[in-house]
Design a protein that fits this description.
Elements lengths: L15 E5 L3 E5 L9 E5 L11 H22 L3 E5 L16 E7 L4 E3 L2 E3 L17 H15 L1
Antiparallel strand pairs: 1-2, 2-3, 3-5, 4-5, 6-7
Helix pairs in contact: 1-2
Length: 151
């Protein structure tokens, strides 16, 4: 049965770690249909948002500011989408959803990065879970670019 998250990548795999705070980890997602897509995952096991404590919410809020500034400075998207989907966990017989956020930069116009064109065909609409794997060297370049702004 397919239980991986379409937005994150493979099951149990959020991507490459680019930053860590006290309560959360930021990963550059394997799929880059929307250039700069990241996953922000809680460091502890937590099923639902109502189980987050005050310190986790505060730390998350600080990460939102940090990540949006970093990606704005490096990639200049038009806007950001944030979502907390856990639907794919329930495709298995023994679901174990974990709180994590999808950070999806959105672009009104075509963007070129590392000589690759990125077009946001769904701009103005909900992002679609269509996977786009970019070359490893491009993924590493993107990771380093964002990571420099986060540290």
């Amino acid at each position: 049965m397919h239980t991986s998250c379409e937005y994150c990548g493979r099951e149990g795999f959020y991507g490459e770690k680019i930053y860590e705070s006290h309560k959360w980890i930021i990963y550059l997602a394997p799929s880059q249909r929307y250039l700069g897509t990241c996953v922000v995952a809680l460091k502890r096991s937590c099923r639902d948002l109502n189980q987050l404590n005050k310190d986790e919410w505060i730390d998350f809020g600080e990460l939102v500011i940090l990540l949006e500034k970093a990606v704005s400075k490096t990639l200049n998207p038009t806007l950001f989408n944030w979502s907390c989907f856990k639907n794919s966990a329930f495709r298995s017989k023994n679901p174990k959803p974990e709180v994590h956020w999808h950070f999806i930069p959105r672009y009104e116009k075509k963007v070129k990065f590392d000589d690759i064109d990125f077009q946001d065909p769904d701009f103005g609409y909900i992002p679609q879970p269509v996977q786009r794997i970019i070359p490893e060297k491009t993924h590493l370049k993107l990771k380093n670019l964002i990571q420099k702004q986060l540290i």
